[in-house]
Amino acid sequence: MTATKPVNLWTSSDHVRDYLERADSISHREEGEAALLEFVPQSARRILDLGTGDGRLLALVREQHPDAEAVAVDFSPAMLEAVRKRFADIAAVSVVAHNLDHPLPSLGKFDAVISSFAIHHLVHERKRVLYAEIYDLLNSGGVFCNLEHVASPTPRLHQEFLRRIGFTVETEDPSNKLLDFETQLGWLREIGFDDVDCHWKWRELALLAGRRE
Ligand SMILES: C[S@@+](CC[C@H](N)C(=O)[O-])C[C@H]1O[C@@H](n2cnc3c(N)ncnc32)[C@H](O)[C@@H]1O
Q: Is the distance from the beta carbon of residue 117 to the nearest atom of ligand 1 less than 6 Å?
């Protein structure tokens, strides 16, 4: 018997277009992004953005760290085209096509690994392994900041969250593989991250972060 492949619609250009059209209007996301910016060390020289999309989060981080070198990773052709266009004139940003379902390629070490609303598209087992890969490529004092879409504790809270962002259980993205934030914080601690916490949360949007000593 062959296992069914988990759904991930992000290689569809229609799916990408629908997201990019509403990306600015997602409730409270700017609060989460602002919270993330606080945790990127001022001294960060190399930054990795996983599931970068059109580079929205990386662009915000670069405003505060204009001299840092950055690597932006995604697997969606439409997103890769958008992020390459955004950073076309910026030699300090490299864009890498990679499917995060698979082990990270060799990218060197980083002072900050950031991600927004991307890792919940991976199956849970892969999320945990990816967190360990991220730990391995952080320099001492480096941070992992994951602004993430996490699971609600009850179906009612899930439905209320969806309603507030303009979706229903019928129309929500079937690519989502939501996991509660407590489990993810526990994984980060087990892997060896220090100062692990959920620093900001609005319903299913949460900033999870940890630091490598
Ligand atoms: C909701 S968008 C978020 C994009 C961007 N980080 C932002 O905050 O606007 C999710 C992103 O995760 C990427 N993604 C989903 N699954 C992926 C995978 N298996 N490998 C690499 N990227 C993936 C998608 O292509 C998309 O760019």
A: yes
pTM of the model: 0.98
Mutate to test the pocket of ligand 1, among 15, 60, 75 (most ligand atoms within 8 A of CB): 75
Q: In degrees, to the nearest 5, what angle opens at C-alpha 119 toward C-alphas 115 and 120?
A: 130
Indicate which atom in ligand 1 lies nearest the CA of residue 8: 16
Instruction: Give the residue, out of 5, 15, 22, 52, with the most ligand 1 atoms within 8 A of its beta carbon, to mutate for a pocket test.
Output: 52
Q: Is the dihedral of CA 123, 36, 58, 23 positive or negative?
A: positive
Q: Which residue type occupies 177?
A: K
Q: Convert the pLDDT of each residue in 20-55 to its tens digit.
A: 999 999 999 999 999 999 999 999 999 999 999 999
Question: Distance between CA atoms of 164 and 25, rounded to whole angstroms?
Answer: 11
Neighbouring-strand partners of residue 144: 113, 210
